[in-house]
Amino acid sequence: MTGSDDASMASGYARYLAAKTTVDDRALNRHVLAELRRLMPAGAPRVLEVGAGLGTMVARLMDWGAVGAGEYILLDADRHLLDCSGQWLRDWAAARGLRSDLLPDGVQVGDLRVRLVHAELGGYLEAGHGALADVLIANAVLDLVDVPAVLPGLLRLLVPGGVYWFTINYDGESIFMPGHPHDGKVMQAYHRDMDERIRFGRPAGDSRTGRRLFHNLRAAGAPALAAGSSDWVVSAGPDGNYPGDEAYFLGSILSTIRSALRSRQAWVEPADLADWLAVRGRQLAAGELVYLAHQLDFVGRSPGLRTARPR
Ligand SMILES: C[S@@+](CC[C@H](N)C(=O)[O-])C[C@H]1O[C@@H](n2cnc3c(N)ncnc32)[C@H](O)[C@@H]1O
Q: Is the CB of 52 under 6 A from ligand 1?
């Protein structure tokens, strides 16, 4: 792959994350979100979001009035995404008439200082870290890491009693409609690929991350205070068009499945996979494809004090 291929793939991924925003907006569990708002420290908290990607969550939390001042750190292993993030956040702020200024390490948006940190999570946890966070966020990320290994270190990034909000955790069920005869074998292979995936030299995923978080959080001394489903539900409107850029989002989901299974020929016959993808592609183009993915959200406190540090 050439450098420019690499760059265009990364830009495609940035577009996927931007397209995912409206899907996540609908999906995020409002009961869990209400509990986050209740637990959120007053004043100007320090928020750390791991695997933050483009930074769409900080924009959403400002839009929703859940965050407005303090410091918000976007940590991600993908430098190109972080590079895109600064401009994406400035464009987002400009569209809302919010003042934004470039900083040496991020962007000031209104009263919120957004800092961009390039780091791989496992290495970041092993290397130790600076100031602790009051709030820790991971959206659509924990299903990409080895949760039992990573969770205790993650929770230590919080002040004792600090608040975590772990959202859009995949939980073993993807449904594409209308049904197709190869759905079962394609999904079984896709889940197996998630379960066996290695990234950054570490196990990277679990197709049942969501349901296992109940136990994993408890084992780490931080049982959930609220939990609920945050399923992705994507379908075209009555005019046959998908909302926003969600046709691109669906196309990216199909591409992800193709990339994951292309080298897994022992699990799915290449001809069966090709047929499944071709049918799904045609349904997408016709606005007939419906996609559901089961996911779970959690909010709670890190072990330690029962309340976050007073401000
Ligand atoms: C599915 S994307 C979600 C991005 C963002 N949270 C969102 O919902 O739009 C997962 C993100 O996690 C990052 N990521 C995956 N594994 C990581 C790791 N081990 N350390 C740091 N970042 C990681 C990826 O680079 C990517 O930006």
A: yes
Average pLDDT over the chain, rounded to whole?
A: 93
Residue 137 in contact with ligand 1 by CB distance below 6 A: no
For residue 150 and ligand 1, the question of a CB distance below 6 A is answered with no
Among 243, 242, 14, 45, CA closest to 163: 45
Atom of ligand 1 nearest to the CA of 53: 27
For the stretch 159-200, pLDDT in tens is 999 999 999 999 999 999 999 999 999 999 999 999 999 988
Nearest to 75 by CA among 24, 129, 21: 129
Q: Is the CB of 140 under 6 A from ligand 1?
A: yes
Number of domains in the chain: 1
Which among 111, 106, 38, 19 is positioned nearest to 69, based on CA atoms? 111
Q: Residue 103 maps to which CATH number?
A: 3.40.50.150
Alpha carbon distance 108, 270 (integer Å): 49
The pick from 82, 83, 144, 150 for probing ligand 1's pocket by mutation, whose C-beta has the most ligand atoms within 8 angstroms, reads 144
The verdict on the CB of residue 64 being under 6 Å from ligand 1 is no
Measured by CA distance, the residue closest to atom 27 of ligand 1 is: 53
The confidence band for 9, taking pLDDT boundaries of 50, 70 and 90, is very low
Q: What is the pLDDT of residue 305?
A: 61
The reported pLDDT for the residue numbered 150 is 95
Whether residue 93 lies inside any domain: the answer is: yes
**Range of 218's domain?**
3-172+202-233+292-301
Question: Angle at Cα 65 formed by Cα 228 and Cα 110, nearest 5°?
Answer: 140
Q: Please state, for a pLDDT cut of 70, what percent of the chain lies above it.
A: 95
